[in-house]
Amino acid sequence: MSSAYDPQWENALTVVQEVEPPLIPADAHVMTVTITYPPGSGGAPPHRHPSGPAFGYVLEGELLFEVEGEPPRVVRAGEAFWEAGGDVIHYSDANNRDDVRLRFLVTMMCVPGQPMLTLVSEEELAARRHLRVMAPPVSDEVDG
Is the pLDDT higher at 30 or at 1? Predict the structure, then answer.
């Protein structure tokens, strides 16, 4: 290993995500985890992160990501995502591919003594259905 600093060190930085998160509690606990799903996995059931935001980065594969109030979207390896946490329902963290695994990293803000994740009941999903944004229909038409 060289003992000299790299003169290009300032050019080594690439911003992958920049957001304005909600207020983070002073006593927040930060947890970073990796999640690995096999090809075709549906991921976790609908849930929320009640005590704070979560910031993620896809390491391998493609994540089908959906949170309440936003249409589903695909996040590919090398791309970042985030969710506000709190009362917002996280509908999908599924593997979008059936031929490769999905691996992503998530850093979550948690309040000590509160769970990092809570599942959402079928009754609550039905009551909040109007807050879910569905993906626009895919058209087979070709522009021309």
Answer: 30
